[in-house]
Every structure is written in structure tokens, then in C-alpha cells.
Amino acid sequence: MSDAAPGLRQTLCYGVLGLPVAMAALPLYVHLPQRYAQAGLSLEMLGALLLAARLADAGVDPLLGAWTDRMQRRGLPLALALAMLAGGLFGLMHPPAQGAAAWLLLFMLLTFFGFSLATIVHQSWGTEVGGNAAGRTRLTASREGFGLLGILLAAALPGLLSADLARGLSLLAWLYPLLVLGAALLAWRGAPAPLRRAAVAAPAPLAAGMRRAWRNPRFARLLAVFAVNGIAGALPATLVLFFVADVLQAPQWSGPLLALYFLAGALGLPLWVRLARRLGRMRAWTLGMLLAAAAFTGALGIGAGDVRAFALVCLLSGLALGADLALPAALLADIADADAEAETGTRQAPKAGAYFGWWNLVAKLNLALAAGIALPALAWLGYQPGSTGPNARAALITAYCLLPLLLKLLAAALAWRWRSTLEIRT
To answer: At residue 4, does pLDDT exceed 70?
Structure first.
């Protein structure tokens, strides 16, 4: 392996593939319930199918990661993943008149598995070709920056393509394979080529590949910080629309405020890359957590009509999001690279798939845990959607602001305690 970091053109060509991959996430998590409720599925059936598909999707990530580590080239798994992603999303956006439940389950599994495999392969590719710590940080920031742009495009395009949301989603599904193909061609021609591994006569069993990451204590500590910090970020993401509607009492501002949050995250990525180069990535990431904690502290005093004040909260927490996107995955890439070198005593293509498989499993469980913690807690505290009384407002502020604030501070304390262990300088 070379220690030379990719240039700007190579970094951008690598990152652009993150745009269509992330672009598929918004229709999957936001539009599917309404789309299939309109197709005649009951909410009970819809909820059961969504839960089953998402649990299966989360559970398969470590297996997919270990499988990609056995491949000599990443081109075949990536091509398979992108084909599954494009075909699955197209099917989901065109439900049939009859048999919508079976159709939904089939194409959800296809799309979720394609999304998971594409994400793991793309992340592992960046680990292989980053060259050094600074290069891997820039590749991660490029991937996540294009991913945020993909989310914004997915939010805007259906409305721009048609005034009818269902037709807009259908047109997006027709356009999506072209976006995937264009990004894949740019990545294939302009990004550093994934490294070819030496052929192994008897590769290790998949179970052994899945366990390899857990033999590394650095990985377990980094994953602990990532999990605590991830739940802290997932809680407000789950509750923000309730907060805007019932505390801010300005539901018409939910779209612009979310756009401001994601734009701040994308525009802040270069700042965190520079800070990481000057301060170290663990110190920069800790600073990002403290910035998010400060934003949630400010949100504690927000009331009805305080749109400008909440816009500032969105701006600051969006900037902090940039640190969460750019830095922890780059730290993980360094840990996987150092593990490969320690295993053989030579520089070789790291088997990062197993690491990123577990990483993505935890990221998905963070969202599930946030919903599982926040929504029952709100109901227990007496909040119901549409409630604007003082008790309901206090419950929502506790779940949206106070819990994330405390979890961010805990994650920052863990990151600071383990900063020397988790920062691998090359």
C-alpha cells in the first residue's frame, strides 16, 4: 500500500458515489409509509413489514462486511449493490394494484441489502486507498458531504418533478438509475482503484471474519463512543418534527429548518477536516460534541414563535453534524489499516468490511433505540402529538434537548479519556 494521499480530483470522484447511495435513504425512511398506505395497506401491516425488513437489514451488515473482505476485488460487490439499490427503489416507488404487501417486503429487502452493501464497500474502499490518516479523513468528508447533498436532492426533486408527490417519486425512480450510473462511472474513472488482494486458497470462515473486529480493543472503545454519540444525535432527529410543531408551533418552517441543518453539516465538513489536521481528530470530534451540547442547551429555552432562535440551534447542531460525519469513520479506517499491518507485519489491503459491517449495524440500532426510548418516554410523561400545554412542552423539551445534551457530554467525556488510544497518527 502507498502512503500517498489521493489528490483533490481523486477525492471528489471517490466521494461522488455517496450522493446516489445516500439519496435512496430519504424515500426509504420517509416516503414509504405514506406511499403504501395510499396503496391500501393497513397501518398495522405496514408497521410489521417495515420492522421486519429493517431488523433483517441491520442484522445482515456484519455478514456482508465479512463477505466483502473475502473478495479480491470490490468491483463485483459494488456493481451488485448498485444494481440492487436502483432496481429495488424503482420497484418500491411503483406498487401494484394487488399484492402490495408481498411487493413491499420483497423490494424493501432488495433495496435495504443493496444500500447496506454499497455503503460497506464504499467505506472499505476509502480505507484501502486513503494512503494515510489525512487522506482517509478527506475521503470520508468527501463521501459524507456528497451524501448530504444526496439527501437534499432526494427531498427537493420529487416536488420539482411534479406537484403530485406520488408521481414525483415515480419520476425520481426513473431518474435514479441514471444518477447511479453517472456517479459510478466518475468513481471508476477518477477515484483511486481499489486494491487487489492476494488469492487465498482456503479463506477464513465468515464467522471468523465477523469476529475479527472485536479482537481489537481500540475498535470496541471507538464503537462505544460512536454508539453513545449516535443515540444523542438520533433522539432529536426522531423528535424534531414534533418539536417544531408543538413547542415552536411553526410546522410550516420544518422543511427550511431541516434544509438549514443539513446544509450547515455539508458546508462545515471542510472546517472539521482542517481542525482535525491542526488539533487531531479525537480533539476535533470532542469539540464537535461540545458544540452540539451547547446547541441543545440553547434549545432548552425556546418557546412558541422562536423561529430565529431555533434556526441558530439548527445551524450550530448542523455544523456539529459535520464532525460526526467526517471524523469517526476516518478513525475507524485507521484502526482497520493498523490492524492489517499488525497482523502480517507488512502494509497490505486492510480487511475493513468486517469493521464497517458492525459500525453500520450500530448506526442503524441507534435510530431504532432512539425511537424505542424517546417515543414511549414521551407517552409516559403525558405528551401526545398536537399537545401544546406546559406539561407536554416540558416532556418534549426533556426528550429533545436534555437527554441528547447529557448523552453528548458523556460521549465527549469518553472520547477525551480515550483520545490517545484512538488517535492513530501516520
So the answer is: no
Residues of the chain by 3-state class (helix, strand, coil), percent to 5? 80, 0, 20
How far is the C-alpha of 100 from the C-alpha of 38, rounded, in Å? Answer: 11
Strand, helix or coil for residue 203: coil
Three cell numbers, residue 222: 471507538
Q: Residue 145 and residue 231: Cα distance in Å, rounded? A: 21
In this structure, what C-alpha cell is assigned to residue 406? 447529557
CA distance 55 to 43: 18
Instruction: Report phi then psi at 263, rounded to 5.
Output: -65, -40
Give the whole-angstrom CA distance, residue 296 versus residue 301.
10
User: CB-side exposure of 159: number of CA atoms within 13 Å?
Assistant: 7
C-alpha grid cell, residue 78: 459494488
Q: Which cell is 17 given?
A: 458515489
Nearest CA to 172 out of 35, 78, 286 is that of 35
* 109-133 tens-digit pLDDT: 999 899 989 988 888 888 777 667 7
Domains defined for the chain, CATH in brackets:
1-193 (1.20.1250.20), 209-426 (1.20.1250.20)
| Distance (Å, whole) CA 141 – CA 145 | 6
At 115, which helix (H) or strand (E)? helix 100-129
**Count of C-beta atoms within a 10 Å radius of residue 56:** 14
3-state secondary structure of 362: helix
Cell numbers linked to 116: 447496506
pLDDT average, residue stretch 154-163: 84
- How far apart (Å, rounded) are the C-alpha atoms in residues 152 and 157? 9
Least Cα distance to 230 among 414, 375, 385, 65 occurs for: 414
DSSP letter for each residue of 151-187: HHHHHHHHHHH-SSHHHHHHHHHHHHHHHHHHHHHHH
Average the pLDDT over 161-181 and give the result.
89
The one-character DSSP state at 74 is S
